[in-house]
Specification:
By secondary structure, this protein is an alpha+beta fold. Strands 2-1-6-5-4-3 form a 6-stranded mixed sheet. The protein is elongated, with a radius of gyration of 18 Å. The chain starts with a helix and ends in a 13-residue tail after the last helix.
């Protein structure tokens, strides 16, 4: 196999390991998917990967369970740097106004990666959230939420929280923790990618 194919396989393996190890609480191996200065963005967290791991462990210890499911991946390589775009869904079950609900987010992970000493690692993860649903687990249950209650329900799904506001729970796609600009070109510009040069460490 040529080197590009090997790199693509290694990156896909890394992306899958992120989801499996994070959901299983395998924190020692989960730490290996990041480079030291790795940066994580989510609806409920923006900061260094090491802090993301810490607060994730704290939530896991309290019984919070969030499940990540991955779809197809598209990988753009530029030497020892790369950007991987992966389809995903994130689901969580929690009570909302005393009604147990499933909250499901659909979107994409954008991973900015670098190969150092022969090993790929994530420098920055920036999700794009495109669609959301909230459904009572009991189909006979009634969940009545106005705008204020939606925002309160979002804050209560924590930690991690889906606290992006009522517009997210109503299913309006938006970009987490930033403006509403979406698309690969916009994200590449924000990550410092220009003229085909991948610079995932630039914020």
């Amino acid at each position: 196999m040529d080197q590009q194919l090997l790199d693509r396989l290694a990156i896909r393996d890394l992306v899958e390991n992120w989801a499996v190890w994070r959901d299983a609480g395998d924190w020692e191996r989960f730490a290996t998917v990041w480079h030291e200065e790795g940066w994580m963005s989510a609806t409920w967290f923006q900061g260094p990967a090491r802090d993301f791991m810490r607060v994730s462990q704290e939530g896991f210890a309290r019984g919070v369970r969030i499940l990540h499911f991955l779809g197809g991946t598209s990988i753009d390589l530029a030497g020892e740097r790369a950007i991987a775009q992966t389809k995903m869904t994130i689901s969580q079950r929690a009570p909302v106004h005393d009604v147990v609900c499933d909250v499901v987010c659909t979107g994409r992970f954008y991973d900015f990666l670098e190969k150092r000493q022969g090993k790929w690692g994530i420098v920055r993860r920036q999700p794009i959230y495109e669609k959301d649903r909230i459904d009572p687990v009991d189909p006979a249950a009634t969940l009545r939420l106005d705008q204020t209650a939606l925002a309160a329900a979002a804050r209560r799904l924590s930690p991690p929280r889906l606290h992006a506001g009522a517009d997210r729970l109503q299913g309006q796609a938006r970009h987490a923790g930033a403006d509403r600009t979406r698309g690969r070109e916009a994200l590449w510009r924000r990550a410092g990618v220009a003229g085909g040069e991948v610079n995932p460490r630039k914020k």
